[in-house]
Specification:
Elements (H helix, E strand, L loop, with lengths): L1 H16 L2 E9 L6 E4 L5 E5 L2 E5 L6 E5 L8 E4 L5 E5 L4 E5 L10 E2 L8 E6 L5 E6 L4 E6 L4 E6 L11 E7 L2 E6 L3 E5 L5 E6 L5 E5 L2 E6 L2 E4 L9 E2 L7 E5 L2 E6 L2 E8 L1
Antiparallel strand pairs: 1-24, 2-3, 3-4, 4-5, 6-7, 7-8, 8-9, 10-11, 11-12, 12-13, 14-15, 15-16, 16-17, 18-19, 19-20, 20-21, 22-23, 23-24
Length: 265
């Protein structure tokens, strides 16, 4: 029996160790200081101050829009290849952009819905919903963007935020993942019921990848809760300016270039 277990563990590990990173393409930022993201089609979005640039996959021409009413853009998150959320924390405004960067139905002001101090947003796999975080009240909110109604709300969700900040705030595997600057990791289900609470070293990041949560330490990804099941994954390059894992692809920024990788057997 012992040898069977050893064989099975070796088999699983050997399958993962045989995987390798394959560079699929290189994206180019207009300026290395721009914030950026990508959608399910691998299309590049970048922004700075109150301006957004969008490069379609099959078109070498940038769409560009400036939104003076936003002041400073805090976040842009593609819902799919045709629509994106755009958020400005200082103005407490949220909008939906189409794939030409036009705003659909104007901007939504959170104060019109008795919401304020929203500091983080996260898209949901359910296209009608968005996650919101009110830092002042330590409140998590699930908001229906179509009916403009609050669906779920939980106060004091992190058992005392104190001076901690949210480092990662995203949905993965239909769960909301929240990483605080002190290393606490909270996982909530779609009804904002707390599923689990973990703790990692502070100043680390976590990502969703291959149906698991992974901790980034230097140039290596470590499984957060399944150490026995998956070995670490070493990144294809040891240094980078920024990293994102989006739609199961790895994005590594080096200056104005972004290398896009997939993990192959």
């Amino acid at each position: 029996m012992k040898y069977i277990i050893i064989f099975l563990i070796s088999f699983v590990y050997s399958g993962f160790w045989s995987q390798s990173w394959v560079k699929e393409k290189v994206l180019t930022l207009k300026d290395s200081s721009h914030s950026w993201t990508s959608d399910e089609w691998g299309q590049l979005y970048q922004w700075k101050d109150n301006s957004v640039w969008f490069l379609q996959d099959l078109n070498s021409t940038y769409f560009q829009q400036t939104f003076k009413s936003l002041g400073q853009i805090s976040s842009l998150q593609p819902i799919n290849g045709l629509r994106s959320f755009i958020f400005a924390e200082n103005q407490q405004l949220l909008g939906i952009l189409d794939n030409t960067l036009e705003v659909k139905d104007g901007f939504l002001a959170f104060y019109d819905f008795n919401l304020s101090n929203i500091t983080r947003i996260a898209k949901s796999a359910r296209p009608d919903f968005i996650w919101l975080f009110d830092a002042y009240r330590e409140r998590l909110i699930l908001f229906n963007i179509n009916t403009l109604e609050i669906t779920q709300i939980v106060d004091n969700c992190f058992e005392g935020l104190a001076e901690n900040q949210i480092i990662n705030f995203f949905e993965y595997g239909q769960n909301l993942i929240c990483l605080l600057s002190d290393g606490r990791v909270f996982k909530f289900d779609q009804n904002l019921t707390l599923i689990s609470k973990d703790s990692i070293a502070s100043e680390k990041q976590i990502f969703g990848f291959q149906n698991e949560l992974w901790l980034l330490d230097s140039d290596t990804l470590y499984p957060l809760n399944s150490q026995w099941k998956y070995p670490p994954i070493v990144l294809p390059t040891p240094s980078f300016d920024d990293i994102q894992i989006l739609q199961e692809h790895l994005y590594l920024q080096h200056g104005s270039k972004i290398d896009v990788f997939s993990l192959k057997m």
